[in-house]
Amino acid sequence: MAITPPWPKPLPYTANLFRRLARGWTSWFGLLNEWDFRIALGELNLLGLRVFLVNDRALVRRVLIEEVENFPKHPYTLWILEPLIGRAIFSVNGEEWARQRRLIDQAFQAAQLERVYPAMAAATDAMLERLDQELAQQPDAMRGAVVDIEAAMTWVTADVIVRTILSRPLQADEAREVVEAFGRYQRRAARALVMRFLHLPRRWVQRSLQRDAGVIRRWIKGVIEERLAAPDAGGDDLLAYLMAAHDPVSGTSFSAEELVDQVCFLFLAGHETSASALSSACWLLALDPSCQQRFWAEVDGVVEEGGLAPERLRKLDYGAAVFQETLRLYPPVSFFIRERQSTETTLQASRCPVGSLLTFSPWVIHRHEDHWPEPNQFRPERFLLDGSTPEERRLSREAWLPYGLGPRKCPGAAFAQQEALLVLAELIGEYQLLPANEDIGPEWVGRLTLRSANGVLLRLVPR
Ligand code: HEM
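That is the input. Now the predicted structure with protoporphyrin IX containing FE docked in place:
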C-alpha cells in the first residue's frame, strides 16, 4: 500500500498580489495557488512584468530544448547568485556560458565516476563514524537516538564535494562556518527574489547577500591561491582537472578568478542539492518501512557479492527507483526561470512579450494531475520496468525534470546518483530509520533549494 507523505499544500487563490508576495517571503511555495497544479499554463502581471508558469510538456520542451536560444536564463538568476558565484556557469548565457560548459564538461569527463568514488566512500565512512559517536553518547544506544538527518546529510555531501574538488576532508570548523553561511545565504536569497519583484534596486538587494557570500568566497579563494602557488601539491582531483581544462574553440583556460567562481558554484551545486535529496530520501524511507525493507534486502544482496563499489551500486535498481521517486516528490531545485528574448511570441494562446519571465517548476510539474497518476503518492515502482505501464514510463521521461532539460541540464546527475546510492546503502546497512515523531514532520520551504525549516528528525536504531 503506497503512502502519501505530507507536503506543504498550495494555498487558496488570492487576487491580491502583495498578499501573495508576502506569502512567498520565507518560501516561494507561498506564491503558488491550488490550481497551478491543474493548469497547463499560468500567467499573471506582476507589477508590469509578464510572468508565466509553464506546466505543459510540449511547452517545456519547446522552451528548454527546441528554442533554447530565445529563452536564456533570466537575469534574476544572476542577480541573486552573483555575490556568491560571480559569473559562473549556472547563471550566464550565450558564448560566455558555452565556453564555460566546454571547460566544465572536459573536467567532469576527466574526473569520471570511478575516480571520485574513493572520495565519496571516505566521506561516507566519516559520516558513519560521526553518527556512531552521537549514538554512543546516548544512555541506551541500542534503542537508537534522534538525529537531525538533514544536518548529517549536509555535512557528508559538503565533505564529498570538498574531497572531490580539493583531495582533502572538510574540517569540523569549516563545516560549521561555511555550511552555516550557506544556510543564511539561502534564506536571504529567497527574500532577495521577492525584493527584486518589488523593483528594489539590484545593488541594494545584493548587499543583503554579500556578508555570507564573503565568508564562503574568502575560504575558497584561500584554498585556490594555495594550490595555484604550488600546483604540484594537489592530487588527482576536480580542481586539477578544472585548472588543466583547455577550450579548443577560444584557446583559453579558466583564469584564477574564474576558478574561484566555478569552485564556489560547484561547492554550492554539489552539496546543497544532494543534501536536500538525501534528507528527503531518508525521511521517506523512515515513513515507509516496507520500502526501506526492500531497499535494505537489495543492498544486502549486493554487499554479499563483495561489498559496495561503483559497478555494484549500479545494480541497485530498486534503490535507484527510490532516489528517482524522491527527486520527483521533493525536487531539490524546485523552480528555475528563463526570459523571452529577441522577438515577441505566443505561448499557447497567450502573448509572450520580450522580457517575460517563464517559471518551470519541477515541484509543480512532478505533482501535476496531467502527468502522474496519484501524483502525491510515494511509489518508487513507477520507475521500475515491472512496476509501471509503458504509458507511465513515457510520462516519466517527459515530465520528470529534477536535473532540468536540454543543453543546460545538470552535468552532475550521475555524480549525484552514485553519491546518493552509496550514502543511503551504507546508512540503511547500519541503521534502521524511523520517524522521530509521527506528528511533527519536516516543514518544507522552497528557497534556492528545497529545505526543511525545522530539520529532518529521525530515530536511528542500530541493526
Ligand atoms: C540531486 C542532485 C542535483 C540536482 C537535483 C541538480 C539539479 C540541477 C538543475 C535543475 C540544474 C539546471 C537548472 C536550470 O536549467 O536552470 C543544474 C545545473 C547544474 N548542476 Fe546540478 N543538480 C544536482 C547535483 C549536482 C552536482 C553533484 C554537481 C556537480 C558536482 C552539479 C553541477 C551542476 C552544474 C555545473 C550546472 C550548470 C549547468 C549549465 O548551466 O550548463 N549538480 N543542476
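Residues 89-90, 101, 104, 266, 269-270, 273-274, 277, 332-333, 336, 402-404, 408, 410-412, 415-416 surround protoporphyrin IX containing FE (CB under 6 Å).
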